[in-house]
Amino acid sequence: MQDEKTVNREAWKVNYVTLLEEVKDFAGEEPWYVAAFANISALLYEELPDLNWAGFYIVRGEELILGPFQGKTACIRIAKGKGVCGTAWEQERIQRVPDVHLFPGHIACDSASNSEIVLPVRQDGQVVAVLDIDSPVFDRFSAEDERGLAAIADALSDLCTGF
What we know:
alpha+beta, globular, Beta-Lactamase, 6-stranded antiparallel sheet
């Protein structure tokens, strides 16, 4: 199922090398994860075309708790293994979902979301947060986006503190 927004990968080209350097600058300037994640979610929301949400969920006990983000209001708590975010946390791997409506147990915080990518952020080998990015466009996220965003999530693992 496609809506009026169709896949236009050429218009979505992002220079992930430059974006990664900007992320490192933000995290280097203020390594406390709340401040760093706030600026990084704003940066991603501004620089990646056709998004409707970009932000973080932080691991607290057996739940993910809403962290800094850009976009419409969001779910506050997500259980481990639930939805795309909870699945990324439980499986400790990236979830790139071209059509969230086909994802078993998808949590629809914003009914306008049609595709999603969620990337674990680790510290000392443990997932401490997930980076969640949603789009109203089906199949918005490519393998190139996944590689670029994975490098960002990996950098955050090394740069951010205070979890």
